[in-house]
Design brief:
The complex is a heterodimer of chains A (117) and B (111).
Chain A lengths: L4 E3 L2 E4 L5 E6 L6 E8 L3 E9 L2 E4 L8 E7 L2 E6 L8 E8 L11 E2 L3 E5 L1
Parallel strand pairs in A: 2-11
Antiparallel strand pairs in A: 1-3, 3-8, 4-5, 4-9, 5-6, 7-8, 9-10, 9-11
Chain B lengths: L8 E5 L4 E6 L8 E7 L6 E6 L2 E4 L4 E4 L5 E6 L8 E8 L13 E6 L1
Parallel strand pairs in B: 1-9
Antiparallel strand pairs in B: 2-7, 3-4, 3-8, 5-6, 6-7, 8-9
The chains are: A mainly beta (117), B mainly beta (111).
Chain lengths: 117, 111
C-alpha cells in the first residue's frame, strides 16, 4: 500500500482565498484524522471520521474550517476564507480499528504545508 | 482526558541507551500507551504501544509499571538518525483511538 496520500504538499495562497486540502487514507482503514501542526501550538487534532461519518469536530478552530469524507477513500479539509494565522502543516492520518484488529497505530501522511500571505 | 507529561528536550551521544519517561496519571482502564517519532518535515511515525509490563520490538522497548501512571521509552544504542521529537500519548480507545499530542521530547543525538 502507498500509505496515506495528501495533496498538495505545498500551497501558498493569499488571505481571503479558499484552500482545499485532500487526503486519501490507506485502503480498508475505517478512521480518518485531520491534524494541524504549528511551532506555537504543536500538533492539534481538528476532526476525525469513522466510516466516513464525522465523530468529533471540536478541534476545528472556527466556521471557516470544514471537512468532508464523501467516501472511504477520500477526505477534504477546506478553509474559506483563509487567513495568515492558518499557515501550518496539515496532516491526515488513518487507522483500522474494527474487527478487533486495532493496533494503536495511526498512519500519517507527509502533510500539506500551507502558507497564507 | 489523560494528559501526558514528558521532558521537553534530552541530549545523548551515539551508542548510548536513551530512556524517556512520561507520566500519565489520569490514564483510564481501557487506554493504551503509545509512542511516536517525528522527523522534521514528516508526519509522526508509530514506534511502539503497550498496556502494561514490558513490550519490545525491533526499534525500542516500552516499560510500564503496574499502576500504569507512567511509562518509559528505551532506545538502545542511539545513532545520529534517532534525532527527532518523541511523543508519548494515551490512546483513547473508547474514542476511536484518538490521539492527543503533547509537546513531545526533542532528542538530540551528538557524535
Amino acid at each position: 500500500d502507498a500509505g496515506v496520500i495528501q495533496s498538495p504538499r505545498h500551497e501558498v495562497t493569499e488571505m481571503g482565498q479558499e484552500v482545499t486540502l485532500r487526503c486519501k487514507p490507506i485502503s480498508g482503514h475505517d478512521y480518518l484524522f485531520w491534524y494541524r501542526q504549528t511551532m506555537m501550538r504543536g500538533l492539534e487534532l481538528l476532526i476525525y471520521f469513522n466510516n466516513n461519518v464525522p465523530i468529533d469536530d471540536s478541534g476545528m478552530p472556527e466556521d471557516r474550517f470544514s471537512a468532508k469524507m464523501p467516501n472511504a477513500s477520500f477526505s477534504t479539509l477546506k478553509i474559506q476564507p483563509s487567513e495568515p494565522r492558518d499557515s501550518a502543516v496539515y496532516f491526515c492520518a488513518s487507522s483500522l480499528m474494527s474487527s478487533g484488529s486495532y493496533t494503536g497505530e495511526l498512519f500519517f501522511g507527509e502533510g500539506s504545508r500551507l502558507t497564507v500571505l | 482526558l489523560a494528559k501526558t507529561t514528558q521532558p521537553i528536550s534530552m541530549d545523548s551521544y551515539e551508542g548510548q541507551e536513551v530512556n524517556i519517561t512520561c507520566s500519565h496519571n489520569n490514564i483510564a482502564t481501557n487506554d493504551y500507551i503509545t509512542w511516536y517519532q517525528q522527523f522534521p518535515s514528516q508526519g509522526p511515525r508509530f514506534i511502539i504501544q503497550g498496556y502494561k509490563t514490558k513490550v519490545t520490538n525491533e526499534v525500542a522497548s516500552l516499560f510500564i509499571p503496574a499502576d500504569r501512571k507512567s511509562s518509559t521509552l528505551s532506545l538502545p544504542r542511539v545513532s545520529l538518525s534517532d534525532t527527532a521529537v518523541y511523543y508519548c500519548l494515551v490512546v483513547l480507545y473508547n474514542q476511536g483511538g484518538k490521539l492527543i499530542f503533547g509537546q513531545g521530547t526533542e532528542l538530540s543525538v551528538k557524535p
